[in-house]
Design goal:
Layout: E1 21-26, H1 36-39, H2 46-51, H3 57-74, E2 75-85, E3 88-90, E4 93-95, H4 97-108, E5 110-119, H5 127-132, E6 140-148
Parallel strand pairs: 1-2
Antiparallel strand pairs: 2-6, 3-4, 5-6
Helix pairs in contact: 3-4
């Protein structure tokens, strides 16, 4: 559970029957850090405050895996799962989350049917990030469209 958020529901334990819905859209947290920006009381952590933050990348990725498996459970055959995600740079390291999510969704039995890229007109950027930029800014997010399949999709 990301810090600073009340628990209203949990995508890893949906109160739904097996194979009971046809479509599910998921817009999860995408940040994880234990760095000084999380502890800061200055405007440097405006992004963390707005979106919530997981304590580590490992915990965030496990949350994604568990949520994907739960989506597979509740979706009917050929059901559609839309997963919004965003790549990021954290502590100077690239995290291409959209690649990780595609792989895990396929491992769970989904077919990557489509991918939409949404370009942002505005993006929140903390002052400290402007001074320390070493990678391209992420002014976009992804919407994966997965279809629940009974067979594993293999690419040539």
């Amino acid at each position: 559970m990301p810090t600073g958020e009340a628990e209203y529901g949990d995508s890893r334990r949906l109160p739904l029957e097996n194979e009971s819905i046809e479509c599910l859209m998921f817009d999860p947290p995408f940040l994880a850090t234990t760095g000084k920006s999380l502890r800061s009381n200055t405007d440097g952590n405006i992004i963390n405050k707005r979106f919530g933050v997981y304590p580590s990348e490992k915990e965030l990725h496990q949350f994604y895996i568990d949520s994907i498996k739960e989506a597979y459970r509740v979706l009917k055959d050929s059901g559609i799962y839309i997963f919004k995600c965003q790549d990021k740079v954290s502590s100077g390291k690239q995290y291409f989350s959209h690649c990780f999510i595609k792989e895990e969704a396929e491992n769970a039995g989904f077919y990557a049917k489509d991918l939409f890229v949404l370009l942002a007109k505005n993006r929140l950027v903390a002052d400290w990030q402007l001074k320390n930029q070493k990678h391209a800014r992420k002014f976009h997010c992804y919407f994966w469209v997965f279809e629940k399949c009974n067979t594993t999709v293999k690419y040539a």
